[in-house]
Amino acid sequence: MSASVGISAVRKFPWWWIPGIVLLGTGFVFISQDVPAVNVFWYVFAWYGYLLIIDAIIYYNQGHSFLSHRKIELGEMLLWSVPFWFLFEAYNFVLKNWYYVFALHSDWQQGIFAWVSFATVLPACFFHAELLKSFGLFTKMKTTPVRVSKGLSQFFLYFGALCIILPVIWPGATFWMVWGSILGIPDYINYRNGAPSFLGDLEQGEPGRLYRLLGGGMIAGLVWEGFNYWARCKWIYTVPGLEEWKIFEMPVMGFLGFPVLAVGAFATYTLLSRYLRGGRTWERADSEQLNKERSRWYWPVLGIAMGLSVVVYLGLLDITLQSRRPVFGEYTQLTAGEIAGLNRAGVVTPEQLFHEIRANGSQAIAQESGIPTSAADSLQRFTSLVLHKGMGVHQARLLTSAGINSVTDLIGRKADSLYQSLQEQAEFHDFGPPRLAEVHVWIRAAELAGGTKR
Question: pLDDT band for position 38 (50/70/90)?
Answer without folding.
Answer: confident
